[in-house]
Design brief:
8-stranded mixed sheet; alpha/beta; 2 domains; Rossmann fold
Length: 503
């Protein structure tokens, strides 16, 4: 959920750790860093467990609290100032300032998420970070790992108003274009502007793909004088384009002036008439990022074993600025479209498996449960309910604090209940496999337990598997994926589906 999940799960301050790796036996610096680490832990123990409560404070009270915390680090540094090299002291001062300024600039969005207040401006914070903008145009700071996170947080703060302009209403990559258009205002230096536009494009492509970014890439190539940066982006574009050449890409839905795609993989001759089971992948990413290509390799493996495999593109906050309601409608549209076109695609429409990780797992459940969310253009004669549901680290409750960002702009906060699986369980649902970590810090294990219990009480066929250790990302961690994949493989085998690797 943007940066909020990171804030909730981040449990220690890392000031000085990068520097400590290269200090050697210098006892003064070692003593300074040990004392700094102790202060950092005290701040962490206060700030992160009370994240919501702290961000419900007024701007003035929050700023006072953060200033007080920062001053402890500055005071400690001043105690050692005369004994440490001037360059090291300056670097520490900069690191401390950037860290706490980032916390300040992230306050407005988080404050509005966890409170009912909508201030028109944040003058105290704006004034405190005003001087930092001069740093944006210093070429010597382009690789500074303390400045870059602040700049990203600053741009995220500034695009909130920018995105309200009518010009972005019909764009596929709203947030990308909003940041792109804002950059000349804050990056007057050509070298710096090109560098951060490169970072913006690379970050967007890594998280959301290259779709509808060619125009910005062409503009970047014209303005950027750093051939190395251009070459890196060229390689990313070439690799992404090549990744589309071995399968069918079909548009399943039109949203305004852009379309959404299905990526369909199959092995074997098109002349064969035998219908095959279908597995449909919904990527994760907190409904905020992600792309269909994250599951291309898994699709290829399923296709090799006799399946038809499909990875779904759906609307996300990071590209279209949409909330999960849009993603739910897209997921249901995708299953309907696949059923409607089952004959031409040679799909056995009585054997459709839907699978997803995290937010993708939520969408799997929503295809079967969220009956109140259907696109007007859908052909309702075709069912959006898959025949089997596979969910890894899914999201079951969109009414808790961790999903508060979704409700932030809603007049009716209860609207999310219509897409919250724990509020929607009924009888006669498909066979379902849930896999969740008891140590998941992103999605409470208790919410998965509740869903499993409610499903059992309703008489639905469900299997609930628990990994005691790990984290939210058990589906990507080499220590846990063998177990996850084995459970999935065995579950599908018992239901009579072809062999798979369980991915």
């Amino acid at each position: 959920m943007k940066n909020l999940v990171i804030a909730f799960t981040f449990i220690c301050i890392t000031f000085g750790l990068k520097a400590q790796e290269n200090l050697g036996p210098d006892s003064i610096r070692t003593n300074y860093l040990a004392a700094q680490k102790k202060i950092g832990k005290a701040f962490s123990d206060m700030f992160y467990p009370n994240f919501v409560k702290v961000h419900q404070l007024t701007e003035k009270d929050f700023t006072t609290k953060i200033d007080s915390a920062a001053n402890q680090f500055y005071t400690l540094l001043n105690t050692y100032k005369e004994k440490l090299p001037p360059a090291y002291v300056a670097a520490q001062q900069f690191e401390i300032k950037m860290y706490f300024d980032k916390i300040l600039i992230e306050f407005p969005d988080t404050h509005e998420t966890y409170s009912n207040e909508r201030p028109r401006s944040y003058p105290i914070i704006e004034n405190k970070i005003k001087g930092n903008q001069a740093l944006f145009n210093d070429p010597s700071l382009l690789e500074n790992s303390d400045l870059v996170p602040f700049i990203q947080a600053f741009l995220n703060y500034k695009i909130a108003k920018e995105m309200n302009k009518p010009v972005y209403r019909v764009l596929y990559n709203k947030r990308l274009y909003a940041q792109w258009h804002l950059m000349p205002k804050y990056f007057e230096n050509q070298q710096c502007r090109s560098f951060y536009r490169y970072r913006l494009l690379m970050d967007h492509i890594s998280h959301n793909g290259i779709k509808y970014t060619a125009k910005l890439f062409a503009s970047f190539k014209q303005e950027c004088r750093d051939t190395a940066l251009v070459a890196k982006l060229e390689r990313v574009y070439r690799d992404s384009e090549n990744d589309l050449k071995d399968h069918r890409v079909v548009e399943y839905k039109k949203i305004g002036n852009y379309g959404l795609d299905l990526h369909i993989f199959e092995k074997g001759s098109a002349a064969k008439k035998d219908k095959k089971p279908l597995i449909v992948f919904f990527h994760g990413g907190s409904w905020s990022e992600g792309q269909a290509s994250w599951h291309f390799q898994a699709c290829r493996k399923y296709a090799e074993k006799g399946w038809i495999a499909c990875s779904v593109e759906y609307r996300i906050y990071g590209s279209q600025g949409t909330l999960p309601f849009a993603a739910v409608m897209d997921a249901r549209s995708a299953i309907r479209w696949l059923r409607q076109h089952g004959n031409e695609l040679r799909i056995d429409t009585g054997r459709i498996v839907a699978t997803g990780n995290s937010a993708g797992g939520h969408l799997v459940l929503a295809t079967a449960l969220a009956d109140g969310w259907n696109e007007k253009t859908d052909n309702l004669k075709f069912s959006p309910v898959p025949n089997v549901l596979l969910v890894n680290s899914g999201v079951y409750d969109l009414t808790d604090q961790k999903t508060a960002w979704i409700r932030k702009s809603l007049r009716n906060k209860d609207l999310v209940k219509g897409i919250s699986p724990n509020n929607l369980i009924r009888k006669h649902l498909p066979p379902t496999l849930l896999i969740h970590s008891a140590a998941d810090r992103n999605v409470p294990y208790a919410s998965a337990q509740k869903f499993a219990s409610l499903m059992q009480a309703a008489g639905n066929p469900i299997e609930f598997k628990t990994i005691q250790e790990g984290s939210h990302f058990i589906f990507d961690h080499p220590s846990f994926t063998p177990t996850v994949f084995a459970w999935r493989k065995e579950f599908l085998k018992r239901l009579g589906y072809p062999d798979s690797d369980g991915e």
